[in-house]
C-alpha cells in the first residue's frame, strides 16, 4: 500500500546518478520501482499522496510452489491493493498474503536453512495482528481492522522495534 501513495521518487541508481521517476502506469521504470520499492536503486526522496484512514482486510493462504511458479502470478496480485509472496524453498510452499479495502470503509534442500525455515514458516503461518482494544492475538485468517494497524502490524504497545534491542538486519524484497 506504500507504493499506491507514491507520486514520484528520486533514486540514486547504480551509476551514482539521481533519477526522478514520476507515477505513470505505462512507464516500465515506474512499474519496476513501484512493484518493489528500492529495486532500481537507493530511494532518497518520495512524494506521497495522503489518504484518509480506511478499513482493510488481509488474508493469507499457503500454496504449493508449483501453483505459484507455474501459475498466473499477475492474476493473483492484480485484484488487490497489495499482495505479497513468501517462498519457502525447502518446504516447496508459498505464503500468499493479500490486502484490500473493505467496501464500507532459492535453493532446494538447503540443509543449513531447514531448521530456520521450519521455525519461520510456523511463525508466518498465523496472522501477526492483535485486536486493537484488547491487544489479544488474532489467530486465524482473514483479519479485519484499520489500515494502519493491519498493514503495519507486529509492533504493539508492549513491544519495541528491533533496533531498540540492538538488532540489525537486511530485507530482501
TrEMBL record:
InterPro entries found in the cross-reference section: FAD-bd_PCMH-like_sf (IPR036318), FAD-bd_PCMH_sub2 (IPR016169)
Protein name according to UniProt: FAD-binding PCMH-type domain-containing protein
SUPFAM superfamilies to which the protein is assigned, alphabetical: FAD-binding/transporter-associated domain-like (SSF56176)
Taxonomic lineage from the root: Eukaryota, Fungi, Dikarya, Ascomycota, Pezizomycotina
GO molecular-function terms, A-Z: flavin adenine dinucleotide binding
Superkingdom assignment: Eukaryota
Source species: Verticillium longisporum (Verticillium dahliae var. longisporum)
